[in-house]
């Protein structure tokens, strides 16, 4: 699966209104990756993002990063200190994706000209940056469940079939089922052995 065009708030890069800011402002960005199958990156040349929340939950340890990385359907809230006047592209690290619309212009008051882009310094995304430093190890779970995600290419009438622990889910029988007990603590360990992105969530 691939995409020919990208947009932020319904507009491709270079279209629509820019984000207008003033020097010295602290701007809170709420970013949602609306894709169901692609990860996204965002950088703003000469600026850092202080991550304050992930998926709407405040992080224990807000920390600055040069790039935001968002998985499919993931949300990040981050504060940007506006200290680098100019007209900039807030956009994806991939040149081809920016060229196809993945970005938005950030324009400082009193600045004009062609929006500028520059790649950020090398950086490896790590969620532990936002965790409590030296946390107390959690108690051991009552049970652990290992789940291996695999794909059978064109296995059913030319369509791919995805499996958990070698079993595809059957919509008619609602199988397979994991039997769990109320009040027990379970650790889920998931490994994606395919070349596709697989966001996972638990219905409550």
UniProtKB/TrEMBL annotation:
InterPro entries given in the database record: Cu-oxidase_2nd, Cu-oxidase_C, Cupredoxin
Residues of the Plastocyanin-like domain: 4-90, 157-203
Q: Name one Pfam family in it.
A: Cu-oxidase
Q: Which residues form the signal peptide?
A: none
One MF term in the entry's GO annotations: oxidoreductase activity
- The protein's name: Plastocyanin-like domain-containing protein
Organism of provenance: marine sediment metagenome
The record lists the lineage as: unclassified sequences, metagenomes, ecological metagenomes
């Amino acid at each position: 699966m691939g995409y020919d065009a990208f947009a932020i708030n319904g507009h491709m890069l270079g279209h629509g209104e820019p984000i207008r800011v003033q020097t010295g402002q602290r701007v809170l960005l709420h970013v949602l990756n609306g894709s169901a199958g692609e990860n996204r990156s965002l950088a703003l040349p000469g600026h850092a993002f202080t991550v304050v929340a992930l998926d709407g939950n405040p992080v224990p340890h807000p920390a600055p990063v040069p790039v935001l990385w968002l998985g499919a359907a993931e949300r990040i809230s981050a504060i940007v200190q506006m200290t680098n006047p100019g007209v900039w592209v807030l956009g994806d690290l991939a040149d081809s994706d920016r060229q196809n619309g993945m970005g938005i212009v950030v324009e400082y008051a009193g600045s004009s000209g062609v929006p500028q882009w520059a790649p950020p310094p090398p950086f490896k995304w790590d969620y532990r940056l936002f965790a409590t430093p030296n946390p107390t190890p959690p108690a051991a779970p009552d049970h652990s469940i290992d789940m291996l995600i695999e794909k059978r290419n064109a296995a059913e009438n030319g369509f791919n079939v995805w499996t958990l622990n070698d079993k595809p889910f059957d919509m008619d029988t609602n199988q397979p089922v994991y039997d769990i007990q109320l009040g027990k603590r379970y650790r889920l360990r998931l490994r994606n052995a395919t070349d596709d992105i697989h966001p996972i969530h638990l219905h409550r």
